[in-house]
Amino acid sequence: MAISGWFVALLALGIVPIVVTGKPIVLVYWLLLVILLGTLDLIMAVSARSLRFERTSPDRVRLGETTSSALRVTNPTRRRLHAIVRDGWQPSAGAHKNRVALTVPSGERRELTTVLTPLRRGTREAVHVTLRSYGPLRLIARQTTVSVPGSFTVLPPFNSRKHLPSRLARLRELDGATSVMIRGQGTEFDSLRDYVRGDDVRSIDWRATARRSELVVRTWRPERDRRVVIVVDSGRTSAARIDDEPRIDTAFESALLLAALASSAGDHVDFMIYDRRVRARVQGATGPDLLSKMVNSMAPVQPELIEMDWNAVPNLVRQATTQRALVVLATTAESPGATHGLLAMLPQLTAKHTVVVASVTDPSIVDATLDRSSRDTVYLAGAAERALLDQSRVANAINQLGASVVSRRPSDLPLALADHYIALKAAGKL
Fold first, then answer.
1. For the chain, percent of residues with pLDDT exceeding 70
2. Domain spanning 1-155, CATH architecture
3. Topology of the domain comprising 159-164+226-426
4. In the predicted model, is pLDDT for residue 181 greater than 80?
5. Average pLDDT over residues 174-187
6. CA 326 to chain centre
């Protein structure tokens, strides 16, 4: 039961007869009258439990996009329904207006549309509908909460796909007219051409030279059909928000762009999310099916408030592939203490694989080093400089162990990782 403003105003109106007559007993009669009217109004209100509710929810939507949910209310009673309906979507579903005044004549149906702009990945739910049904006088209402479940899945946005055409063009250029002229294990034969002064003599094809009676060399190009293994750290450090975006979401964005690029280049991509257990895994998928499976596996995963178990990562990589591969570790590489497990594990991977550590840099730390206008900002700048020094020490340690580091702010990391992949291709390391 809920009391409306009209009921309160009607009660307050009882002061008028007291002032006019000067008899306090009049107030008692007035209160009895208002309560009687309120009771009759409550009896005349349509019960929410006699109504029928149907919900139509979207299936999937990308983070940041707008969708809508429809709620149909059927009134099978003989009375006219006057109500305020609240569609109970959780706050992260981003309902623009979930309280609507509704009038449904007897035997008819009305549809309410709730516009949704989700704020977080994962499953967004509406468990119930709360309906406040008023009588004809709008004094007292019946308030009831009815279970009308609904849900939809919010997928990663993949905003960096706008960079995919330009990077694919660079790959085609690398794989076509400007094939990399390198020699050695881990490359594919491309074509034969005449020897030019300065060419590596080890690339001379002596059989072709004998047939042509002039020096001929082999050209090589980066191999296709290589393996790319992406491991995203879903431990506690991935929950930190940088530029109002969780680290894990930035890692997902980077993984999607890299996977799309590598798949187009003809490489096989294996993807997994891990902390102390495998939270998601995508293996054996190619083409459009790869990205579809990746975004579906990413959607429900949220960071766990536990430490990452780096000791298990080499075995996970071995399960994905036994041949040499590009292993991308999307994690945090900032403080020496937090990266101790990562640094201890890296030699096991770098002995056989090309390893890249992708990490998010907090731009607020860099900005803090620029302002030294007051004593407080000087202290903040000193702390920021120390944080940057720690990041540099960690990066140097990773490089010394045979891996490389790609560290950028959230908006720049996906593109930087894609460019690093292309550079490895160009250098013949993939």
1. 94
2. Sandwich (2.60)
3. Rossmann fold (3.40.50)
4. no
5. 48
6. 24
